[in-house]
Write a structure and sequence with these properties.
By secondary structure, the protein is α/β, with parallel strands linked by helices. Helices cover 43% and strands 16% of the residues. It binds farnesyl diphosphate (FPP). Farnesyl diphosphate is lined by residues 15-20, 33, 36-37, 40, 57, 59, 64, 79, 82-83, 131, 181, 206.
């Protein structure tokens, strides 16, 4: 990478289109997810190499429980296998893995695996990789409100202090949110944190997403002027 451009501090990605990718090839949906994991690996590595500090990937939403039992089960086993295989590479690249979402409804073997990956990579500081697992933006906000109520806080909550009660406490908001797969919506992703994020939608299905397209999006982002409501 010779050309200079300003890399977002925090990028978040909605990885959509695995099922359609598989269908187009006459394969089972699960084959699309398998291919999707390979792309995750490459995009994570590329992000750290570009100097990004936070990368958040939407792996499983609160709504994804509505899929067939077989697909949900497959996804959980795929996450666990991928995460376990991936730990040495995360360590090598000094990437810390973090999970955002409510772990309580997840099966025990998934909970154990995410705790293990978290512990194994806790000392790394080159980039934080947030995996959104059983994540829902509305639920995150409601849980934050309930936490505040349970603490019986008397002091006024501000927009900034409210953030301390979100799963992403202590992290900057995403500068850029990318969605693959052609849909143009946020689907309950980072609702509070996305207030000023630049949005980028591509028709490319996640398993076809490449480092080259990623780099083009990052360069496009770097040309956008972010005013946060101010006049130029
Ligand atoms: C959306 O495609 C994709 C998912 C719900 C799963 C995403 C998971 C991965 C890419 C694997 C991630 C792995 C790790 C370790 C983080 P879809 O099934 O909704 O596709 P469709 O819209 O074409 O049906």
């Amino acid at each position: 990478m010779n050309e200079k451009f300003s890399v977002p501090v925090h990028t978040a990605i909605i990885m959509d289109g695995n099922g359609r990718w598989a269908k187009k090839r006459g394969l089972k949906r699960t084959e699309g997810h398998k291919k999707g994991v390979e792309i995750v690996r490459r995009i994570v590595k590329a992000s750290a190499d570009y100097g990004m500090k936070f990368l958040t990937l939407y792996a499983f939403s609160t709504e994804n429980w509505r899929r067939s039992k077989e697909e949900v089960n497959f996804l959980f086993h795929l996450f666990v296998t991928a995460i376990n295989e991936y730990i040495p590479e995360l360590k090598e690249n000094k990437i810390k893995i973090n999970f955002i979402g409510d772990p309580s409804p997840l099966p025990d073997f998934v909970k154990r695996s995410i705790q293990h990956a978290f512990n194994e990579t806790a000392g790394n500081d080159r980039m934080i990789l947030n995996i959104a697992l059983d994540y829902g933006g509305r639920r995150e906000i409601v849980q934050a409100v309930n936490k505040i109520l349970s603490l019986g806080k008397k002091a006024k909550i501000t927009e900034e202090t409210f953030k301390n009660f979100l799963y992403t406490a202590g992290q900057p908001d995403p500068d850029l949110i990318i969605r693959t797969g052609g849909e143009k919506r946020l689907s309950n992703f980072l609702l509070y944190q996305s207030a000023y994020s630049e949005l980028f939608f591509t028709d490319t299905l996640w398993p076809d997403f490449t480092e080259k397209e990623y780099l083009e999006i990052l360069k496009d982002y770097s040309k956008r002027e972010r005013r946060f409501g101010k006049a130029t």
